[in-house]
Please model this.
Amino acid sequence: MTINWAQVLFNSVVTGSFYLIGAVGITLTYGLSNFPNFAHAELITSGAFIGYMVAEQLGLGIPVALVISFLCTGIVGLLCYRCIFQPLAKKGATIIHLMVASIALGFILRHSIGAVWSWEPLYFTSTWRAFTVGPLRVTWLWLGLIFAALSLATAMHFVLVKTKIGKAIRATSSNPELALASGINIDKVIWVTWFIGAGLAGIAGIFRGADTQIWPMTGWDAILPIFAVAVLGGIGNFYGAIAAAFIIGLAENIGVVGLTILGLSTTYRIGIAFLILIITLIVRPQGLAMLFRRT
Amino acid sequence: MDPLLYVFDVVVYVGIFGMLALSLNLEFGFTGLANFGKVAFFLIGAYTYGLLSQIGIPFYVCLIAGASISAAFGFLISLPALRLRADYLAIVVLTFGEILRLIVKNEDWIAGGDWGISVSRAISLAGASPRVNALVNIGLVYLCLGICFFVLQLLANSPYGRTMRAIREDEIAAEALGKDRAKYKAQVFMLGSAVAGVAGGLYAQYLQCVLPGMFMPMVTFTVWMMVLLGGPANNKGVLLGAVLVEIFDRGANIAKDYLTLPVDPANLQYILFGVLIILVLFYRPQGLLKESPVTTKALELVRNDRSAVKSNGKQ
Model:
């Protein structure tokens, strides 16, 4: 069997781009609110379904769907934080209580989606015909995904470094008390972060849904590697997440080649992210964060 | 269906899930470990039982083997995350459960893949009616539950139990007092996994089959609900929680046959589960029964002495 390594590399970039868009929300909200939001999976799913509704059922096309999905999912995420996590945290809930609440919320969202759209898998009707560029097989969807991830990385870098809100996010993430003392409205910063993070999860959901299928487990199927990205990148660290997303994307695609050679099911690709997660926790629990300390 | 058999069925489920709730209570309630992969150890116990009983090993050996293998996995999987924060352990164990289910689903040679394998009852009396068989099962399950309850209750009221609570309240203070927190956490995690393994074995022999579909993440969540509703760090409370959640579950199942709803009742049931747990977290995070105070012989003696001194003083 000959392996087309250029294709493997390209696929890794595609996978990494998806993980990056999906993981930005997790890593930023995790860093600010100090608990992993397991309902992030359902935010991804909601994004996919909202995108499906706009693009297919209303017939407005994918670009409009991306925008509306970003806004709607962002509002859902913000509401989740405002109505459930923030009051719980104010009542003195521990991190474990918040995690349980996020899982419960995930169940509510997932099954509400199931009740509205049913559990039958849905597909975008627009097809992305594959064409070849040199040794590569590509589709416009994948190119769009890579473009989205690149623009996201550039935009987020610009926001985090240049704008006031970005600086406030970084300040609050590293030391909330000090940020509060410097006159930063912490609540506002956290709300903006939850909105952006959840909105990006919605965009990730559309790409995932267009690439595979849309059903209430779409987000859950992808959430574990996304957590691995957040942990490997260092919780709350955006630049770490970029590196981690592409590392895990590469490892997964090389792993899939390995699994095929060994004759195992490729559904084990999730196991590769798990291995990276375990190794990170043993060797370097702070993730790649320290590599990007000066940014 | 025979109504009495249905009642027996509920009783057995309460017993098996009561054991799971007790084991989660040991980890979360007493020690503050967030085990979001309880179902993984339940699965290990069930599959160990199923595979060993097929080659004719007596049931008690199968149960003990299930408990030991489950404990071993609990140790291995918790090792990388124990020294870190509670959330890392939660993510690792949750992922572990999902991967384990994927493996038994994909690898047909282990235990029949998606279709599972059939398991024989632990004790089957020749020619007995289903009711008698169910009663025998109730006896076996509640014997195991009783042993677990007794051991965990003793543990909770021992110096070991006080160390667990100390680690839950403040790890660093406990460490400063010379308690090796990683060692204690690993031991607690192993013991909790072992209890879950026994529960898995009992579940497999009661349903007479094991299939991957029995071990969805929802099982873990149901057990969490039992513990949170009943009262963390109170063994009687979590058993009460197990009874209530099981009745709620069955009630919803029966009600959906009689109600015509615009929503698919299967979805509605999960949504109600989620709403209920969020309400519990909001309004009654300590559960229905509060944390049980530590009762030990020594403490009783001290109290008796004090009251004796007081009554002496009055004379």
The longest helix of chain A spans residues 5-33.
